Give the backbone structure.
Amino acid sequence: WGIVPVALFTMTYTMIGGLPASLITDWVQAVAILIAVIIICIILFTDVSFTKDDFAEVSKGTDQGFDAFVALCLSVFSAEIFNLAFWQRIYAAKDERQLRIGFLVGGGMVSFITFI
């Protein structure tokens, strides 16, 4: 039931502020996630230690691991392609040139991050 207040709040500010409000909140979320990822990477690279044997043990590839990798990449990519916010920005483009630029940059970034 915790999602109901969040959904109502999101629906309200989107109805009041429209697409600009949605863009601003997406930007704030992206900055917050980027900061969190940087902090986590710094912590991991400074506090976590492992030996060559540990790395060799966890880096063994299996068919099951490859299947999981492919399924995860395809599911995340598909979820992002069908994300309403992605299409919302396409329909809000000023002209066809801006539409193409936004689609290529956004789609390229999503694809890169998904399959990195």
